[in-house]
Amino acid sequence: MKAKITLAKEFRIGDIDKRIYGSFIEHLGRAVYGGIYEPGHPTADENGLRQDVIELVKKLNVPVVRYPGGNFVSGYNWEDGVGPVESRPKRLDLAWGTTEPNTFGTNEFMQWCKKANAECMMAVNLGTRGPDEARNLVEYCNHKSGSYWSDLRRSHGVEEPHNIKLWCLGNEMDGGWQMGAKTAVEYGRTALEASKLMKWTSPGIETVLCGSSSRNMSTFGKWEAETLEIAYDSIDYVSLHQYYGNHDDDVMSFLARSLEVDDFIYSIICTCDYVKARKRSKKTINLSFDEWNVWYHSNNAPFEKWSMAPALLEDIYNFEDALLVGSLLITLLRHCDRVKIACLAQLVNVIAPIFTKTGGGVFEQTTYFPFMHLSNYGRGSALLPLVDCPKYDCKAFTDVPYIETIATYDEENEEMAIFCVNKSLDENVVLDVNLMDFDGYKPVEFISMDGYDKKDENTFDNIKVKPHGNPLPSIDGTKLEAELKPFSWNVIRLKKA
Q1: Beta-strand (E) ranges in 179-236?
Q2: Burial letters for 196-219: b for 16+ Cβ neighbours within 10 Å, e otherwise?
Q3: How far apart are CA 411 and CA 281, in angstroms?
Q4: How far apart (Å, rounded) are the C-alpha atoms in residues 404 and 78?
Q5: Domains defined along the chain, listed by start
Q6: Cα–Cα distance measured from residue 351 to residue 179, given in angstroms and rounded to the nearest whole number
Q7: N or C: which end of the chain has fewer CB within 10 A?
């Protein structure tokens, strides 16, 4: 099979906001307890933070992490998670049917962020609580001193403010499963007032409005339009959430889901711009795709109700999952002019690229590696390639390109990268790349993941699915040729000689 790609500096989509490579930690399952936090673990520091996990997070180069939920936040009293640990109450978490010990909270998470080289994307409870509690949390986190909540923080041993810039206005408030679920008008009014008070408390923060819980909601589109109509002038982003699974074991339809993501993003952009036009506003609302991932392996796994940190939603990912994660990241970059924030949900143990054993080791899941490659090498600006390649039809879609690709260009460091997924199960692709005005750029690395069965997984004892190096592609002037193996993830890095 042959494919052609044409690239030029003029094909620039937009600058890549580093926060597009964000992730998510919720008080759910073993994401916190036994994941990032485990006092007594052989690698734990003086604060109980697992250093083996932090090292893998650092390699992912995650710039922002959403916290503390998720469904959990809609019933969370943030005051329970600050102050002396021995005085903190245990609470029933109605979102997941577990018991929350509250031994890990806001200040502990901010300690973790600092050690993981990440910023916090803090969510406030707009389910069972409202604007007053939200602005109090902002004051606790961001005000220097001289007020009740800021001085309470200082009494808890945190002298300097956390200065959290990014705030989520609740979570999935259109979902009937959500504590304190609301109609669009109810939520729009609550979000407007919360955002207003929070910004008055800490000028310069950014807020994220809850969009639909997924594009499958019956109110999808209408919810965004109605809530934006109310809160548009006070908020900065609108959120998107979506998960994908291969329940029918139809891998070609599974890998085509990137087309669905593309359509989903475009629909929300259109809705935002419709409201902008109605309001005759000069302000553009951008997107925060703050929950996305593959999620289906662990659905309905049994656990003991009201237990602490049970093994919930612990998907073990395979090779085909890694290829879809790579394809979804490529799709996000194709919209980097409007998608400024995205969070792979989640980071550790719960539908996550990092998996731990409580009291034991840690390993990289198959999905870890495409995320790592894009987060580390996909910086600067995104370039939209002109692609000429064969297409296929499947049960869910027609005209699906076999090649999923994007390029990034770091002008300052004179580097570029080409990311490709070959979705064909059995055919190599000879890739011809016309680099146009990138004369003088030479390949410096060709990384791929290939040769695996689509169901291959990693374990504590065997990182079977992992990237490897290849001979550099041939190049003649601005004509580059590379061979992509069947069913593969590929990264070609170039630098100006």
Answers
A1: 206-209
A2: bbbbebbeebbbbbbbbbbbebee
A3: 33
A4: 42
A5: 2-9+383-496 (2.60.40.1180), 17-377 (3.20.20.80)
A6: 22
A7: C
**113 pLDDT above the threshold of 90:** yes
Q: What is the pTM of this model?
A: 0.97
Residue for token pair 């923080």: 153
Q: What is the pLDDT of residue 300?
A: 79
Question: What's the rounded mean pLDDT across residues 168-185?
Answer: 98
Q: Please answer whether residues 69 and 168 qualify as being in contact, where contact means their C-beta atoms are separated by less than 8 angstroms.
A: no
Residue (of 242, 463, 489) closest to 355 by Cα position: 463
Structure tokens at 64: 């922002």
Q: Mean pLDDT across the stretch 258-267?
A: 97
> Token pair of 112, please?
């973790």
Q: What are phi and psi of 429, to 5 degrees?
A: -120, 120
pLDDT above 90 (res 301):
no
Residue burial 237-252, b: 16+ Cβ < 10 Å; e: rest: bbbbbbebbbeeeebb
Task: Give me the active site residues, please.
Answer: 172, 291
DSSP state of 350: S
Residue appearing with tokens 């969009």:
211
In this predicted structure, what is the pLDDT of residue 299? 82
pLDDT bucket at 290, cuts 50 / 70 / 90? very high
Query: Locate tokens 């992509």: which residue?
Result: 484
Return the ∠ at Cα 147 (arms to 141 and 148), rounded to 5°. 80
